Amino acid sequence: MTTVTATVPTIQRWFAQITGESTGEIIAPFQRGYLTDQAHAVAALARLRRGAGKKYEQVPDLWGLADTGPLHRKLHDCGRPPSEDELTRAEDAVHVALTLWALHQQSRPTAMHLRHRREKPRGLGAAVRGLMPKDEIAEPVRKRLVRAGTAPDLPSLAQRLRDLVLLLRGNDIALDYALLAEQLYRWQQPGGQDAVRRAWGRSFHAYRAPDDKHDPEDSASSTSPLSADTSDKDAS
Asked: Which residue ranges are recorded for the region named Disordered (predicted)?
């Protein structure tokens, strides 16, 4: 019997995918609970969004709020145990994506985490492009995406993504946070930043505005793309 050993790139791809899938699984019950006005979910989001743009270790109040047990189990089932650096990458990616989603979902009556589909792209580049008028490039918005793409480290990236998320929230544009978490894991790998920047740029340029401008999932509201909605029905 021959034992097949996965290569390092394959293992890293699996770790990134597991990080994204686990993030989606964590968000799903919180999002359902929030949208049905369940008190525990509303309270959890109020705590989570206070961590947006901050390092995991800076917000001990969030430790244990989200169950990352399945994430650790799946990572250990990939053929070899993850290293300390790999575990940290995964935990940090989940933390950044989860807290940004909580900020994005704040006071929104519809789901702000929606999965990317070919006919409804919801990667970061496509979401930012959705802030702009059809067939036009809003240069100030484009520069914010570029600024995120050139962040020197994950804490800086998290803060710059926070600024973009506020714009998306103000225009009711959803984002695939499972995909974002997967990309955030890749971002932290050696050479990963270039690959993630390429993915964001590709999704930005491949995006096409929907014909139905009244589709709340795809089209921006009448709010200016540079004015973030800061209303908060569940302020905390």
From this structure: 207-236
Residue range 8-206 forms a domain whose CATH class is mainly alpha
For residues 128 and 207, give the distance between their C-alpha atoms in angstroms, rounded to a whole number.
Answer: 10
Give bridge partners of residue 120 from the DSSP assignment.
Answer: 117
In the DSSP assignment, the letter for residue 4 is P
Compute the distance between CA of residue 122 and CA of residue 229 in angstroms, rounded to an integer: 20
Residue 65 φ then ψ, to 5°: -70, -40
What are the tens digits of pLDDT across the range 94-149?
999 999 999 999 999 999 999 987 778 789 999 999 999 988 899 999 999 999 99
Strands (E), 39-158: none
Sketch the domain layout of the chain as residue ranges. 8-206
DSSP-derived 3-state class of residue 120: strand
Token readout for 128 is: 């930012």
Identify which of 217, 181, 196 has the alpha carbon closest to the alpha carbon of residue 108: 217
Dist. CA 65–CA 177, nearest whole Å: 18
Q: How far is it, in rounded angstroms, from Cα 142 to Cα 134?
A: 14
* 16 alpha-carbon distance from chain centroid: 13
Q: Which residue has the higher pLDDT, 229 or 149?
A: 149
175, β-bridge pairs: 113
DSSP-based helix, strand, coil % in the chain, nearest 5 = 55, 0, 40
